[in-house]
Amino acid sequence: MKPLQLLEAPGLHTVLRSDDFGAWESLVAGTLGHHRSRLLPGSPPFQTHIRTAAVAEFEVVLLHGRGRVELLREQGGHGVLWLPLQGLTQEVINGVEVVAEPGMGLLFRPGDAMRGLTSDAITGLSIVIPASCLGGPGPPSPLLDQGLASRRLVTAGLQLARAAAWQPNGSGHAAADLVEALHQWCHPPEAGRQGERLSAARRRRTVAEARHWMELHLADRFSIDDLVRAMGLSARTLQYGFQEELGRTPMAEARRLRLCRLRQLLLEAGQDHRSIAELMQAAGLLACGGTAADYRRRWGESPRGTRRRRTMDP
Q1: CA distance 26 to 34
Q2: According to the CATH classification, is domain 3-171+178-186 in 1.10.150.120?
Q3: Global confidence as pTM
């Protein structure tokens, strides 16, 4: 889903477009939960654009803006499904540190306490979820990334956002699909019970082992054929496993891991003597403007901005 398309979608209504940080904070607090925030030193000039719509019992909030922000929120009597579309949020939720990037999601439940940091630019969807749709404790981590239940919930949230943005015929089905995905996520099968297939456990293990192999070889040039030989599996088996568990192909995951590795290197004080081009190469990426553009699209800031963040953020 392209953020710029959502900013112009006819089904969403603009409720705030401003450079007033106080107006943004007040609106977010009134919509998503008890909220306190501040602009961090060195932040780009603050800008925000917020659009909303509703589908059945769900409210969809599109948040788009610039400004490096520290967030503190206590979730009220409803839940919030956060789906970043561009940029990232680095958060501590109930003492557990997570990083949410495009393609992933976070599910905040009533009573959750969150402290987070945003990238310079951020675009994402918050879907307000009634407490009645959140029966059951759910998995311990709020991060939605790996596994069928998490992938289905992220997909259902994006489908609901499309229904809110363009109001197609039958958009109410998107709400029903989200309710079903929430139920599946909140009621995972117990290990070894409720018919969990051995093949599902093997698939998760295979993907984890393949990701570990890729992490060990990020600086090397490898192809899907190299990964297939290393794992002793067919390309079809690997492709299917990655699509089911992560929602992306093995080589797309390799590029994501390399961009994550570049970010990690940029945030290490011990790497300050190396140029950004050298760090790109160390992460297995081409040292070129295309890599910098991909980095900005994913993380919402330039590689240079990430390196500057290390000395400015708390």
Answers
A1: 10
A2: no
A3: 0.84
